[in-house]
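Progress against Task 2.4 (sequence-to-structure conversion) is shown through the following example record, which the project officer requested during the mid-term review.
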Amino acid sequence: MKISKIAFVHGLALMTFFLSYGFGQALTDCFQIDTDKISSPYRPLSRGIIRRIDVLGVSVVGLVVWILILCWFNPYNLIFGILSFGGLATYSYIKRHFWALGPAYNSLIVSFLPLMGYLSFTKPVG
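Structure tokens generated for the chain above:
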């Protein structure tokens, strides 16, 4: 079974965007274990079943790979990938110290995803 280049690229993009949400969620969870112990005590990170450093490592590596894949589609994705990563890494701090800004800050971070999706298919791959 031969897969076309277009089908491969679309599949890779779909997988990248699908997994990016989970990696981002895991990254923010690493910085709010104390509140998750109250609101979501069933989660493995809250229960201490998995270590924070392990989750942090997997999410950072996953997000970096995601950004690199999207940069392969279009180099301008590097800008929005760095902004997204930085936003995710600082989200818990913003939410804690400036609680009224939390939803708007989260929306800003998430708003980069459709833009990156658009950029991914405006310049041909390779």
